[in-house]
Write a structure and sequence with these properties.
By secondary structure, this protein is mainly alpha-helical. The chain has 4 helices and 2 strands. The relative contact order is 0.08.
Length: 99
């Protein structure tokens, strides 16, 4: 039987090689390039949202306060009138790698 200690180097090297190879493949093939569509009037939407100073977080609109409200005609009318959206707000500025 091979001692576990002698396997650490091959395990770490193979994990590193797989990580690098998968990163290169992921970036080269661009699997996620079409995950998000651009809004038709991005500047207009950004200008409309800016005055609200929405803090970073996850948002859903329209958002019911409880299950009962979801069935009320006013809320149903909001959903039918649209738009319905899920929104992630992040801090202003360029994104930082690692947090």
């Amino acid at each position: 039987m091979v001692p576990m200690l002698s396997l650490w180097l091959p395990i770490l090297l193979s994990a590193f090689v797989v990580f690098v190879a998968s990163s290169i493949i992921h970036m080269a093939l661009g699997y996620h390039n079409s995950d998000f569509a651009k809004l038709p009037d991005e500047e207009g939407v950004m200008d409309a949202l800016r005055p609200f100073s929405i803090p970073p977080g996850e948002y859903h609109m329209p958002k019911a306060d409880n299950m009962k409200q979801m069935g009320e005609p006013e809320f149903v009318a909001k959903m039918e009138a649209g738009p319905m959206a899920m929104m992630t707000v992040v801090p202003n500025g360029a994104p930082k790698m690692g947090g």
